[in-house]
Protein: Nicotinate phosphoribosyltransferase
Organism: Thioclava dalianensis
Amino acid sequence: MVDIATRVHNHKWKIDPIVRSLIDTDFYKLLMCQSIFRNHPDTQVTFSLINRTKSVRLAELVDEGELREQLDYARSLRLARGESTWLRGNTFYGKRQMFRSDFMEWFEGFQLPPYHLEKRDGQYELTFEGKWHEVMLWEIPALAILMELRGRAVLDRMGKFELQVLYARAMTRVWEKIEALRELPDLKIADFGTRRRHSFLWQDWCVQAMLEGLGDSAKGGAFTGTSNCLIAMRRDIEAVGTNAHELPMVYAALSETDETLRRAPYKVLADWHEEHEGNLRIILPDTYGTKGFLELAPDWLAGWTGIRIDSGDPASGAEDAIAWWRARGEDPRDKLVIFSDGLTVDKIRELHAQFSGRVKVSFGWGTLLTNDFRKLVPDDGLAPFSLVCKAISANGRPTVKLSDNPEKAMGPEAEIARYKRVFGVGDQQAFDVVV
Amino acid sequence: MVDIATRVHNHKWKIDPIVRSLIDTDFYKLLMCQSIFRNHPDTQVTFSLINRTKSVRLAELVDEGELREQLDYARSLRLARGESTWLRGNTFYGKRQMFRSDFMEWFEGFQLPPYHLEKRDGQYELTFEGKWHEVMLWEIPALAILMELRGRAVLDRMGKFELQVLYARAMTRVWEKIEALRELPDLKIADFGTRRRHSFLWQDWCVQAMLEGLGDSAKGGAFTGTSNCLIAMRRDIEAVGTNAHELPMVYAALSETDETLRRAPYKVLADWHEEHEGNLRIILPDTYGTKGFLELAPDWLAGWTGIRIDSGDPASGAEDAIAWWRARGEDPRDKLVIFSDGLTVDKIRELHAQFSGRVKVSFGWGTLLTNDFRKLVPDDGLAPFSLVCKAISANGRPTVKLSDNPEKAMGPEAEIARYKRVFGVGDQQAFDVVV
């Protein structure tokens, strides 16, 4: 067991890498990467860091030299032999050889492409331009590096024992959450907290605590795994995750006409349908509004295993999905609903109570599992904040996201208006974006 | 920084010694040992373990084999060269060569004498018979071993993360106490918690936390040191403590007549007066009742530096001392009052408020600093309890202690009655003995 406080105290090492492996990333990035590698190998995409919490002035908190050092270190990483063996030989979602040979050969030679970094208005402009399947692998390391450097800047001012007590408090908090979750019968929950984690060691601790406290779902417990491949490999648990908004966003940006734009989200899932089955067939419906997406969805999509609710009011999202399955002649009790947005223990308890028995319920717990240091330091300097790294253009065309929460919308205004018209999105209810 | 939870988790090592040095003991034991070595080298004394908390059935909780193993290990210890150098070369209470050469030569050859162990009524009868200055050195190791073995028995049933969270909670608790104490202006407080500590590593952690949180009093902080010599040596802080009840108890037991009995407590201090000065001249008045002790005290005793209040109501004890100093023409503001019984943060705050400015106030914080795991495990299995190791006879005559709390009295009934008569102790108010 690592003494995290000691390690943090020793952060004045020449470099204590934040990202220490190319598979210290979310499993779904690799799945999507493989899909893009096959279907869109020549698409040029720009990813960009976006700090939605403007009050956190990252460029004032985080030293540019340290940031470059960490980004450069990440660029030096190559897939290790054991990691490659694990990706090639492991069973994911019950399937062997999830990653095809051509993809693995490419990945074994891969290094993260160059980045572009500038300071502007107290924030960092950090962008990655290049082939989609290459730049997209920057998303998680870039986020993890910035989140952790911001944390380190705050921790640097603390004494050895203050640090140890900080971690003692944070551990106690995580454990109390786990104790509360233990009370929920037939709970299924996974760690989705890589991108905005406090640190790698901390995420690893949280995963192990979940494993001990809730039990491995492979052995009848409630903990279904982690989205983090490195931790999944090291702790010998399931790596989980399916797909994300970047697929419909880029597919949509590449559409020439309103009609192809309207069909883009379904084209994404049609491609996915060819490649994956079972629990990997999870709909992510909210990129351009869940309601319209479900109404216009082709019938074959109702046959998919489940849905992931990632914005808006989660209960209404799930009720909409249930109504939609019923309307399409599907039994919701056979369907999986994965909640993954803004989860707290109370929210999990509430959704679990509302939906258990009506659908198969599962949770992907992110930032408030792996980065809940709220109110533990003066000025709440470790509170999580809403940092994302998104595809902002594809082949020179801007991307747009609407989501079920206007606070999470992104893209040029005129394009947002066009997308709203094309996807029939009217007024939306706003929800605070904490993380 | 040691990861305590990991160490505890690994306690299945062949032997993880509880007492790992002959100076892992209270400083005052060594001071008293030297005094006895000089003044009473031939006195035969029996020390005995006494568990005042009968509900904690030690012989059912602690395996006899493990107990013998730890006691035997303690018997194998010899003073290490660095320890001897430290005792010989260090400055204690501003004085060089506190320990004389003849004593040091004897101590360098010393090993703990044999013990006698039996089970009776769910408790261990553990006694040490021999020369006073030899058997008296068993007191602290015997207590520490039994306290820690009881803790280990409870911890053995816990998982790795449960353990880590247990320590996280306990650390948070200690730190919150320190944060509260930080608010008290001109506080002076030392660690007196060796004998009933949770464990050596934990005491060491608590001392370091006090040092970081309150600051070293040598540099203007509130933390004045630790009674534990090994920790004082390793952490380079003051070793503190003066004398204890065993001196008047044995001197009293050796008295042939009521008259010599009555004078015994003053004889102790007269011997001490010859050997020590300054801050080592601290009266411990309660062995046979503080009130009578002060009334009958010789005038020279009022010239001593201070008093230690170790039983009864501490505020009345201190008020009695103040009145006594005034009556003897001393200015209480020049006097030191050390509170060392049953201290909690609230009690410290209260006594500090009542006596600051009127006398020099200081605190010797014991069990609730180094062993506050109350309510942190099921059935409160780690709650501290009242275990002592006392001289029960000297040259075949029973010892008696009355104290300012009848709950702490000990000795044969007839002898207690005699002592009460000789020392003029009437009805006493009883106080719960937590530790």
The longest helix of chain A spans residues 160-181. Chain A touches chain B through 22 residues (CB under 8 Å). Chain A has two domains: 4-158+386-398, 165-370.
